[in-house]
Amino acid sequence: MSELYDAAAEERGVRLRLTTGGSVWASGDRDLLSSAVASLIDNAIKYGGSGSTVRLSTTSSALGRSIVVEDDGPGVPDAELSRLPERFYRVDRARALPGNGLGLAIVSAIAALHGGRLQLSNTSPGLRAAIMLPTPAVDAIGSPNVTAAA
Asked: Which of 30, 40, 48, 108 is exposed most, by the fewest CB atoms within 10 A?
């Protein structure tokens, strides 16, 4: 996904950084998860603004897997953070930018469909969006069923 967005990020003056600690396996629909990650990257590039850095990473623990997109842009007022995944909700300063307020609602629905959740938090500066997924089931030979990566 990071390779797909390199040119768009560069065009907007945004640095895109990928950090991985190795392969992270997650069970799920590759197309839906890719769409969710694409939406998060697109938002980070759009709202982070020129001169910002967008970091993509994956993490794995006994509690689950996460795909994380974090920017160092202006972030979101704390009072509005919990409303971001609502359909058609847009922060006041975002109303002048293209969009309809459905992106994070769709990402949240995709995460829920996979037994996970979308976690949003301010990083002062910036916003951290993480798709939190459960630890995948393993097949008879001990390999995870499906893979997804940032």
From this structure: 30
Sheet holding 15-19, edge to edge: 15-19, 53-61, 64-71, 127-133, 117-122
Name 18's Cβ contacts closer than 8 Å, sequence gap at least 6.
2, 55, 56, 57, 150
Q: Tens of pLDDT along 90-102?
A: 565 544 455 556 7
CATH T-level assignment (fold) for domain 2-133: Heat Shock Protein 90 (3.30.565)
Distance CA 111, CA 75 (A): 22
Distance in angstroms (rounded) separating the CA atoms of residues 103 and 99 = 8
Widest pairwise Cα distance in the chain: 52
- Between CA 17 and CA 105 the distance in angstroms is 25
- Is residue 89 a contact partner of residue 14, using CB atoms and an 8 Å limit? no
Alpha-carbon gap, residue 86 to 123, rounded angstroms? 21
Task: Return d(Cα 78, Cα 28) in angstroms, integer.
Answer: 31
Considering the entire predicted model, what is its pTM? 0.82
